[in-house]
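Appendix B, Record 12. Input sequence as logged:
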Amino acid sequence: MADKNQNIELYLKTLNSIKEELSEPMRSHFTEERLHQLAASLLDGTVFEIIKELEEIQALTEEQLLQQRMKVATAHKKKQTELNQQLRDQLRKLDGRQHHEVVVRQRYEDDKQKLERMSEAEMTTKDKEIVKQLDQLLEEQQSVLEQASVPFFFVTNQKESIQLQMG
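Logged structural output:
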């Protein structure tokens, strides 16, 4: 029992130190009762294991999302390369007919701008999907920690509450 109390006191000391580094509005959430609840929840190591697993899931998810984004970016680069190759091929076929070169280059510029707009729109859509998936992951993490009865954790999308949870 004395060992348990020593551990709680150590956690409380650390938590109070962290509390002092927070802004005043955030600090007000850390009452002595909440700090004791948090320290007690840390005692058996279950919370640390849960957090470790959540971190691993998050790292895998972030890597998958990065790969998805890179795949879209690579496809855009490939389309740009193909467009550039088409221009070179068309210029080669002109065989010195300079009056057609202006038309070919203008068509290329139009196609290039259209491709850039399309690529930007696709990347924006992909980025929105990624943000939505990350928000879903955050919600799942909050839910798991809430179910584990970790103080301060509940499902929310309010910026201040999320900052408090991330502490």
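The chain is about 85% helix and 0% strand.
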